[in-house]
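Hey team,

Filing this mostly as a record. A colleague (T.K.) asked me to run one chain through the structure pipeline before their review meeting, and I want the input and output archived in the tracker in case anyone asks later how it was produced. No errors, nothing strange. Just documentation.

Input sequence:
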Amino acid sequence: MSAIKNFIKSHPTYAFRFAIRQVGQELEMSLRHRSAVRKAQKLLKALPVKLNLGCAPNSKAGWLNIDLFDSRADLRLDLRRHWPFPDGSVSYIYSEHVFEHFEIYGEVPHFLAEALRVLQPGGVFDVGVPDTEWPLRGYGNPNHDYWAFAPKVHPENCHTQLDHINYHFLQYEQHK
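Output structure:
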């Protein structure tokens, strides 16, 4: 048996290492989510609440700021799981540069269903996603203003316009 273990340790494929890393990340996210669910009940003092989903460092005063990966958020919830808010308890959901990170056929329907469930009648769901018209209009035109912007925010391995377009849409497979 130790020969098999040694082989597995010394000859893993990139896909195998990637899968193991993902399992570890999913476990860590699950633990964060469970902790945030317990904490959420303490933060729900007055209803309705306003949710700032995927806030990163952009917290909004008077809102519940939620981000799975940013420790400065009020709650580190995994939005792919059940949201710990009562039905109709939210007046406003703001979500900027979050929606594109969900897998379209499995995670997006859940995300939208949870948003609908927690929103009160007449509540607002404000979703912002990356502007795709700007880079696509610039493609093939080296003088377009997008090409002055892209190198400032994209990684150094983006050399061609198509590299930048691919990065814009996929962001190292973070965008789904």
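Quick notes for T.K.: DSSP finds six helices and four strands in the chain. The first strand starts at residue 49 and ends at 53.
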